[in-house]
Design goal:
Blueprint (H helix, E strand, L loop, with lengths): L1 H22 L5 H6 L6 H13 L6 H13 L11 H33 L6 H8 L6 H33 L3 H48 L3 H11 L16 H8 L9 H9 L6 H30 L13 H9 L2 H39 L5 H22 L7 H25 L5 H20 L13 H17 L5 H24 L1
Helix pairs in contact: 1-8, 1-14, 3-8, 3-11, 3-12, 3-14, 4-5, 4-9, 4-12, 5-10, 5-11, 5-12, 5-19, 6-7, 7-8, 7-14, 7-15, 7-16, 7-17, 8-12, 8-14, 8-15, 9-12, 13-14, 14-15, 16-17, 16-18, 17-18
Amino acid sequence: MTGILIIFILYLGLMLGIGFWFNRKKLNLNQYLLGDRQLNPWVTAMSAQASDMSGWLLTGLPGLAYAGSLAYMGFSGSLSTPYGIQEAFWTAVGLGIGTVLNWLLVARRLRVYTEISNNSLTIPSYLQNRFRDKKGIICVVTGVVIVFFFTIYTSSMFAAGAKLFSNIFELDYTIALIIGAVVIVGYTFLGGFLAVSWTDLIQGLLMFFCLIFVPIFMFCGLDAGQSDLLAKAMAAFSELLPQSDGSGYSWMSIIGAIAWGLGYCGMPHILVRFMACKDKRTIKPAATIAIIWVAITMAAAILIGVIGGAYLGIDPSAVLGDSEQVFMQVVKNLFPPVVAGIMLSAILAAIMSTADSQLLVASSSFATDIFKRLIKKDATEKQVLLVSKISMVVIAAIALVIALDPNSSVFDVVSYAWAGLGASFGPIIFISLYSKKVTCPAAIAGICTGAGTTLLFKYVLAQFGGIWAIYEILPGFIFSAIVILVVSKFTKTTPEMEAEFDKMKRLVNEDDKKEEVAA
């Protein structure tokens, strides 16, 4: 325990040190919120993907696969989930597809558009500038949605951190929750976007190598009995599709799991990385790095859950009290304390890399899109920066209260927040980059429709079961896109909006032609 504690202290100290380093630079608002648009390919890629995958990658996804493996090995306890492996697999497929399409179709256009559209620093400010919303309605609506869903999202990261600390050091869950929250808020508060991005680079690399090594070492350590259990669990991969008699994992469940990929083009904490990269030519190498990282880490996370079921066995005394602790338990069993401390720091890295980004996006949206638009329109840059930091602490405190339930599922909370953000912003972000005919009223209507549909399906219609229980991001995304296109037919754009859109396309196409000539 001492060895693990020392590693954790050193790791947390390093993260806070990075925050102090960037705090020394006396950052202005542009640097604090967007890093002055100077991220290189590695930082862009690792920051985007580390903040994307979160503690869910090392807790929620392996936990789901672990619960599924128990079902195939014959364990009938409360942790057993009959189709956990199938759900984990198809969710990973959806996220993989979403990652590729986001980098290929959204990243470069958004980087160009946010710069030429009055140097937009946040997603709400981009939408306001893009649609010439002089009244600021779209900024306020977007800011409210971001703060609401990101507060919930951040609470899931705090909960994952508390589970980590309480599992390893046998701390009270609430105390563990507070420790994790204080550290994350600390370095984000101090160093802003640059601190978040550079810590994400370190954390993304740490997650990558730990996710690769753990399943390899675990597999090599299986005895004959454990290998037999693993063979039973692996049978799930031959049943990924519905059976001929209609049994098994359903098509509706598969579609719902793949629908996770729709959320990518609506995630402000990921999109802001595209906006912050050095230039549009940075996107291509960053995309290559990011796509490889995602494919390997998600496959490894599922394997940790599947092999972990065999490694830990199905003896009730050996089965975990919480399936989302499988990575932690395996690491503690496999490695000596110092190595275990490094491996377990990967979970801390995953949690921190997402929570810091969410806090920064949510607080900056409140400061720039709600405070400056509604409360104090003549606020100076210094005042906006101060409000951003204060609101960060307040949002973190609310998220901490939400996370107080130790029995909450990280996977479930993340899926809800992901659906809300993806359905609210995904359609309008994508359509705004590919159609010059979309209008401001259509954008506002689309955002409200996406958010409202998510809430409706989550809290009302899902209770009826059947098709109504489908993952809420799918109907939310579809209805939002339909509303945007319909409202745009009955409202008009301005010549300035269309000219700016044409300028964006011209700049993007110029690079395409240069690449063709070079090839």
